[in-house]
Structure formats: structure tokens, C-alpha cells
Amino acid sequence: MSMKGQVALVTGASRGIGKAIAQALVAEGATVIGTATTANGAEAISTYLAENGKGMVLNVAESESINSVIEAITAEYGQLDILVNNAGITRDNLLMRMKEDEWDDVLNTNLKSVFRLSKAVMRGMMKRRNGRIINISSVVGTTGNPGQANYCAAKAGLVGFTKSLAKEIAARGITVNCVAPGFIDTDMTQSLTEEQKQAIFTNIPAARLGQPEEIAAAVVFLASAGAAYITGETIHVNGGMAMV
Amino acid sequence: MSTIEERVKKIIVEQLGVKEEEVKPEASFENDLGADSLDTVELVMALEEEFETEIPDEEAEKIKTVQAAIDYVTNHADD
């Protein structure tokens, strides 16, 4: 229970990797606020977090929504120690067919949101000389993936963002890191076609999908006191699929 | 009750870890008082809290000396 008294915000926490992260942080003793885009999603989060936190509605693509959620958290819990930028979407298409909307939606939700959220939480973290920002990137941000030029651009963008912010605020006791999942057993990968899955499996030495809990374990480590000297780093959790 | 000037100087001393006698009106945060760009951002944050005001980014960028900070707060004290 090393995170007792700490408050964490996990975006996109209603299911999949986000839910596993929220539960793992709770298991360490943290209070967790999990966000979802719908009221139903937020309610589901409140249910599984029970007395260890609550769900809130947040559209990470909207600045105002972000500011009101951060204000509400600060008012109710007084501080925010850990930010996990997990919320993400896919709008897959071959570039030849990709609409500008598909590009913008993915960049806005997966990359610009991290700029917005990080900025919103930084004042408090700087004042307390302590904080953890953990961005969920992806193996495809490093390897590329046909049909995902928008998603890969956003996920690679997170890595550059992470390194820059890490350098800016390291002296203030705040670390900024990425966890880059490989192919994990979630709704997002279940929407892949059988052909895509087969192609992916041949490239995973571990010969299986990863579990959301295996991503959460890396996030918990980066959020822990023991990881205070790790910043600007990306931890790849991908069963050997890509060794960087 | 301290004057605005005294309160501003006190914040500068605390934020930048400098001696009170170094905080002369013409002193530049970055050139004379050893602040880096993030220190000046934090200094502006501290001024905002002390004087319960919000300093817009374009104004904050102009606050580079002790006198500029005192002037800004003085001019916006009754807003």
C-alpha cells in the first residue's frame, strides 16, 4: 500500500487498459478518479472503484471539460499526484482513404488531450515539488502500422512530448514517462480483423496477446516512489514484439 | 500591512532563494538573480496567488525585472 494518501487521475478508465490501471493503483492504496466520456461509463467506474475513488465524465478533446474536472478534483481531494493519460481512440484507414476528420479526431483525442491535461495538472505538482505523469503510447508509435497513420503519429508524438516535458520539469520533482503497450487483449484489439491478428501473432515472440494488468504493472512502477529517477523514458510492454 | 513593494520582494526572495539586498528594482530575474525560464513562470504563479489575480501569459512574459513585477501588481491591484 505504498501509495496511500496519493490521488491519481486515469483517463479512459471504464474498460480495458485504463480500468486495469485504475484498479492496480487502488491496490497500492491510491485514491483514483477515473474518467469516461459518458455518464454510464463514469457510473461503471464509480461502481468498481467503490470507496477508493470515483468516476467522472470527461471529454479529453475539450479544454473546458478538462478544466472543470481538474477543479472538481482539487476541490474534493485537495491535490493530484499522478496523471495517467490513457484515453485514446482509433479511426483506422489507409492514408489514401483517410479523411481529414479521421486524422483530426485521433490527434485531438490521443495527443492534444495530453498537452491539455498535463498543463492543467502541472501548477499543483510544481508547487508540491512532486508528481507523476504517465502517458500511454503504443508499440505502433515506434514500428508503424498500415491503416493507422493517424494513430501512430499521435502515439509517436507522445514520446517526443514526454521527453520535452520531462526535461522542463525534472528539477521540480515531477517525472514524465510513457508506457508503450504492444497488442493487448482489449476491445480495441478485438476490432482488428482476423488477417491483422494473424499477421501480428507471427511477430510476437511471446506468442500471445498481453493482458491489461501487465500494462498496469508498468504504470504502477513508474508512479511509485522507487521510479523517482526515471524520466523521459518509454517502457515497452509488448511480449518481445519490438525491442527498442 | 506591508506595501505591495514589500510583498513582491518577499515573494521574489522566497521563490528565487536570493538575499533581500539583491532584490533591487532594476534587477532582472534571469540576468541578475539567477532565475531560469521555469523559475520566472513559478514566480508569476506565486504573485498570482499572493495577490489573488490572474496574470495573462502575454503580460507575464513582460515581467522580467523586480520593478516590472511591482508595477504590474500596483496597476492591477484594484481590478
UniProtKB/TrEMBL annotation, chain B:
<dbReference type="InterPro" id="IPR006162">
    <property type="entry name" value="Ppantetheine_attach_site"/>
</dbReference>
<keyword id="KW-0596">Phosphopantetheine</keyword>
<comment type="pathway">
    <text>Lipid metabolism; fatty acid biosynthesis.</text>
</comment>
<keyword id="KW-0276">Fatty acid metabolism</keyword>
<keyword id="KW-0444">Lipid biosynthesis</keyword>
<comment type="similarity">
    <text>Belongs to the acyl carrier protein (ACP) family.</text>
</comment>
<keyword id="KW-0275">Fatty acid biosynthesis</keyword>
<dbReference type="GO" id="GO:0000035">
    <property type="term" value="F:acyl binding"/>
</dbReference>
<dbReference type="InterPro" id="IPR003231">
    <property type="entry name" value="ACP"/>
</dbReference>
<dbReference type="Pfam" id="PF00550">
    <property type="entry name" value="PP-binding"/>
</dbReference>
<keyword id="KW-0963">Cytoplasm</keyword>
<dbReference type="GO" id="GO:0036104">
    <property type="term" value="P:Kdo2-lipid A biosynthetic process"/>
</dbReference>
<dbReference type="GO" id="GO:0005829">
    <property type="term" value="C:cytosol"/>
</dbReference>
<dbReference type="GO" id="GO:0016020">
    <property type="term" value="C:membrane"/>
</dbReference>
<keyword id="KW-0597">Phosphoprotein</keyword>
<feature type="modified residue" description="O-(pantetheine 4'-phosphoryl)serine">
    <location>
        <position position="37"/>
    </location>
</feature>
<dbReference type="GO" id="GO:0000036">
    <property type="term" value="F:acyl carrier activity"/>
</dbReference>
<dbReference type="InterPro" id="IPR036736">
    <property type="entry name" value="ACP-like_sf"/>
</dbReference>
<dbReference type="GO" id="GO:0009245">
    <property type="term" value="P:lipid A biosynthetic process"/>
</dbReference>
<feature type="domain" description="Carrier">
    <location>
        <begin position="2"/>
        <end position="77"/>
    </location>
</feature>
<comment type="function">
    <text>Carrier of the growing fatty acid chain in fatty acid biosynthesis.</text>
</comment>
<comment type="pathway">
    <text>Glycolipid biosynthesis; KDO(2)-lipid A biosynthesis.</text>
</comment>
<dbReference type="InterPro" id="IPR009081">
    <property type="entry name" value="PP-bd_ACP"/>
</dbReference>
<keyword id="KW-0443">Lipid metabolism</keyword>
<protein>
    <recommendedName>
        <fullName>Acyl carrier protein</fullName>
    </recommendedName>
</protein>
